[in-house]
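Researcher: Structure prediction, please.
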Amino acid sequence: MVRKVTCSMCNGTHNFKVKEPMKKEGARPVGRPPKSGGSRKSKEAAYSIDPSRPVRQYNLDTNFGIGDVINHPKFGLGSVEATYLPNKVEVRFQEGKKTLIHNMKNNR
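Model: Predicted structure follows.
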């Protein structure tokens, strides 16, 4: 997701804003799903860390498996949900899912 952009008018850096198209009376904005009141709760419920698992520091050379708890320097604590051959894992962090590279020791 784009968060910062360079302004073509002033060459400064600004936060990216999505411009909503002009809407007709009673119509919803294009491209956005309707808001539901429980979306934040469902995201928080999907993010859970197994407290019985040891926390492992994220490192490109380390091999991770499903269920492992990772402490990433940027994203924080996350839980491995899937592994993809040859060297990728899908980790759910509090801010969402991220695909990370792992097990690079054997691929260098």
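Model: Residues 16 and 108 are 37 Å apart (CA to CA).
Researcher: Thanks, that helps.
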